[in-house]
């Protein structure tokens, strides 16, 4: 059996690092990381639907051969309180549970019920895990992630 090395790959990627000369893409489906040998105009926190191909002769770096869609992702903590639906959902589930609901159109709402005294820490945990949160957003095809909270309730809103 021979290994012909990496082949072209079409997927959605999160840009996790970028400078003028190169960029690093993370496949939001399988987690594979692709270091680009040049930067085709992407920035950190961009999502890219496209195709990467191995960059010869060594095939250890990649080239973004085709971009079908590119958009910026934003992650914000809102001062607004969770919606009535989110508060009702949290009240009806045990502490430590997560409820997911598809938004009308595109995106999802994630409602987490947490101990009241750890609400701020739970919000910080979501913000600190920026890469995982933005990978999820890119996978959904949304552009914005908004976190709302009140004691005992954290809502992560994935929105267009």
Q: What would a concise description of this structure say?
A:
The chain is an alpha+beta fold.
Q: Indicate the mean pLDDT.
A: 95
Helicity level: 10-25%
| Largest sheet features | 5 strands, antiparallel
One letter per element, helices H and strands E, the order comes to: EEEEEEHEEHHEE
Unreliable stretches: none
How much of the sequence is in beta strands?
Answer: 35-45%
Counting DSSP H or I runs of 4 or more residues, the number of helices is 3
The chain-level structural class is alpha+beta
- Whole-angstrom Rg: 19 Å
- Spatial strand sequence of the major β-sheet: 3-2-1-4-5
Strand elements, count: 10
Overall 3D geometry? elongated
Account of the protein in words:
This protein is of the alpha+beta class and 160 residues long. The chain has two domains: 9-72, OB fold (Dihydrolipoamide Acetyltransferase, E2P) (Beta Barrel); 74-159, no CATH class. The chain is 18% helix and 44% strand. The chain is built from three helices and ten strands; from the N terminus they run E-E-E-E-E-E-H-E-E-H-H-E-E. It has helices at 84-91, 119-128, 130-140; strands at residues 9-18, 23-27, 33-36, 46-55, 61-72, 74-77, 98-102, 108-113, 144-150, 153-159. The strands form two sheets. It has a five-stranded antiparallel β-sheet with strand order 3-2-1-4-5, with helices on one face. It has a five-stranded mixed β-sheet with strand order 6-9-10-8-7, sandwiched between helices. Strand 4 and strand 5 (61-72) form a beta hairpin.
